[in-house]
Model the fold of this input.
Amino acid sequence: MPRYLSLIRIDENNTPEGGPSPELMQRMGELIEEMTKNGVLLDTAGLTPTAQGSRVHYEGGRLSVTDGPFTETKEVIGGYALLQAKDRAEAIEWTKRFLKVHEPHWTVTCEVREIEEG
Done:
């Protein structure tokens, strides 16, 4: 079965103060449990803020490292989910369910991409 990476993109400057609500975390936990039991969710995690990250760039044979935060970036990868689904349509349906557990004041985008195997 193909695997898909769902990159969870957020506007780091407009996340709700205090982070996710307890209700959101409960709904998320229930969905994660369902996805795991169905063999769809292989791994998932959130990422620390860009202020705690670094970018390593390669261009023209030279490497550079820039420490966060990255002020020029509005939308950042805030987490990921590694899914195993029968096809892209199924991976997208699970991703839609993930987005729907969020309250309306959240702005979240997921980019779903198939992983090229071997």
In short: The beta strands are 3-11, 41-46, 54-59, 62-67, 75-84, 108-114.
